[in-house]
Amino acid sequence: MSLDFSAAQLEASDFVDVIVELQDEPVITYELKHEGDATLLSINESENAKSYEKMLSEKQISLYTEIKNLSSDAKVGYRYQFTFNGFALKVRGKDITKIAELKSVRKIYSCKIYHTLDAVSNSVIGADKTWEIKDSKGNPVDGTGITIAIIDTGVDYKHPDLGGGFGPNYKVVGGYDFGDNDTDPMDSNGHGTHVAGIAAADGQIKGVAPKAKILAYKIVKGDEGNASSESIIAAVERAVKDGANVINLSFGEAGGSSDPEDPENKAFNNAADAGVLSSVAAGNDGSRCQPTPYPISKPSTASKVISVAASDDGAHPSLTIVSPDVPDADQKITGSYADLSPKFPFDQELGVVLAGFGRKSDFANVDVKGKIALVSRGPIGANAIYFRDKDLNAKEAGALGIIIYNNMPGIVTPAFAVEEGDESREYIPAIFVTQNDGLALKNLLSKGLKIKFGEVSELGTIAEFSSMGPSADLSFKSEISAPGVSIYSTIPGGKYASWNGTSMAAPHVAGAIALVKQLHPDWSSQDIKAAFMNTATVLNNYENGETISWTLQWSGRIDIIDAINTKGIIKPYDLIMKADNLKSVEFTVSNTSSDTVTYNLTSELTLSDFVPATTSAITVTFSPSKIILNKGEQKKFTVTFKVDKAKLLKGANEGLIWLDSGDQKLHIPFIIWNGDVEIPEKLSLVNVSSSTISPGTSGSTMNFDFVLRSRSLTPGTEPNDKPKNSNIIDEMIIKIPDTNGRELGVVYSRSLVLLGHYSIEWDGHDIYGNYFLPDGQYKWVIAARESNNDQQNPVITDAATIERIFNVVNAPKEALSLSISKPSITQEETSIVDVKINSPSFINAFNGVISFDPNVISVTNVTEGSFFKSKGETAFNYLVDNITGEISVNVSLNDSKVASGQGVLLSFIIKGRLPGDAKLYFKESTVADKDGNPVISVFNPSYATIEKAQNPWDLSRDKKVDEGDLAVFESAFGSEPKDPNYLPLADFNMDGVIDGKDLVLLMIHFGETYP
Predict the structure, then answer these.
(1) Secondary structure element (H or E) that encloses residue 47, with its range
(2) Domain for residue 410, yes or no?
(3) Domain check: are 503 and 611 in the same one?
């Protein structure tokens, strides 16, 4: 019998809560077998059932007596006979195995702890605190008495968190299917159910307004994801007629304007005038680019709706590296959940095992039971494997969870649901991390990697997909942000999933509108909108501490508790003007409280074209600069802008108008746009501090100051996929190439970088902590890297670069280098590599890692050189890993002896595997004196070039494909890269296994001869 416990639990003397199941079936199962038409009432009245139940009870008592003989202090808890035959038991862990062997025991289960699953985003926006407030009738402010119209793909009203039914006596009180023109708005797609749950679920999870009612309007045909204007307008009209208080629409199309004559805009604006305010998703088209210069979606561009951007504040899985010791900055890694992933066990120390691509064959020879599997995305081609199957394979192998790392820069959210029925499968927890983070974990495996899982939320940044503004007619759109990443909500069939999108952000605001309407029924639609925008939380880029551009976050992230408690409302609530058409603007501030309120007016400039603003380019004056308002009073004030065109940068010049009452600060975001709204330059250099650096010299640094403003459009990977853009650069690097353009070293690398301004300080180290440049002239390159995210045809490009010449002077004299006897070889050919040292200082030891590309070369025959050996006895240890591509080396002189001068530390042989350039370089390496103190050194990388073998099918190299080649192939058949008999040349389709598919390819060429 397999037991659902860790080895530690089964050995512990501590008590463990378990559920013991007996062999006999429970009463209901028994009765249904013997009385096929039995009902719950008939079972309750059946004498046969009562007799059977008594028998089960007696057997349980008998079993408990046996258990007490084995474990005298075991204590029974609740007993079950009707729906389950067993009982709860508190028992010492070390006794569980003995109890499981008793004849009448079917299975023993761990007693799990279940928590209410409230969406973490509720606390981010203050919904949970709002529920603690009472309205004028004494009801909690939780949506009571408010109805939200969900205009979407329908709603699964049978979901228990959405009421379990349809009609006046349920949560979903009504609706209509405008897509199929019938009265049943049941959701066949899932999108609308997820949206409805965010707004108003009330069950295992709670929406923002859990007691609100729902009107469900389906605007798509069947399970489609597209809707027509005809359906949308009809749904808006029906929602108003049916008495909705709030509308949510999470549909749209990029390129909209606020044109009041547009039919959709007119419908939504008229609804707002009737008191029905709409929350509309701003779109998922990312930053401005061609062919999408205005990504904001219509109809969120209608002037009287609230256009909602997505912030990144959802619950993200994170892992903390417990061992080995790593710098604090590298200790925590944040990723994203797969769509159907359960959550990881928190704060439990777990081991990690490398399992290739997560194929069944990758788990065949590794032990992942009770551990976490680390697998790569991929492979590419015919042997590709779904994320879903990686997870299920890991589960079958006994893993507790799986970490999937990308095989290119950037991030994706793994989708497990690829076929009908996938939602009903049982998965283990899955986290997706970046390529950099995955490789960092991979490099720590040999050092005994242990991790713990947790969650992080309230990142307070903008989602990578959220559409950048302004609108096509230079309107301030979007208007507010709300959580839209990793939002856990309802999906059809009584299930739950984490999804991303402004579609998920909009219902947060719809639920917020419902709460405000309940507490302040006298507030107009525009009062509510102003309250949200005046009190929103201004978001800063956590990477640089600077304010995120209004073109991404707009007035900030919604804060419901501040909005409902505001003492003032300011209109207009935003401002955007062209620099060559400035005018004074009149605002009105109203006192919504019962107190006298005094406001002091100030301004703040935040950004000029993504760069921190200088105060001299724009001057803001107020008339008056101080306002006193009595209860219910409103007053006007005027704001005047003056600009110095010579100092004003092109593009968006941004700032804030503050109204500070002492206990609350209200704000109005403004943008002064200089010039036309253009596709911004991707990457530009603001400043670099020096053209010279002295590695190892205290205080010698170079500071790079650059700005990211946009990125390229990423094509869809499927025929019907829409191209997408992002507010995130897949990877930013600063690298030093050699004269052939090959990378000598990377000095800065960061994945998933938000558009904005960055300052990087470099002290001469590479990202592995080594100095690697001797004196000389070099070139640095800042590169914004993008991947096309296409597994079949992956392309990673330096989409934008800046480069300059610089000089290295006074570099450390101690130097290690990699001398390759034949820098260019063919596949299967070998070459000798000497690790040479030049040390004017007296040294005692070298400890480090030499890294190489295991796809291009393999390493054998590591031998100690004469540098230390000629001075006395040495300790020499090494480990070659041709899977990860590392040689770990430790060599030292015994008895604290020392050596200096030039020589060879060690040598090894490389063999060509696949064509390409193989970089050999040092990682985490040190040279030490006799007291163990590091001696500052330069660690020089090198390259080997592997040329393609002339005849790939001629494995025996006799210029013909015949039985000799079959013999060579047979010797490698069934092998993988980890196997000693693996022959890369025989892996013709390069899928990581030499099998029948490769044999078919070989036989196609059987009998061919070559000159």
Answers:
(1) helix 47-70
(2) yes
(3) no
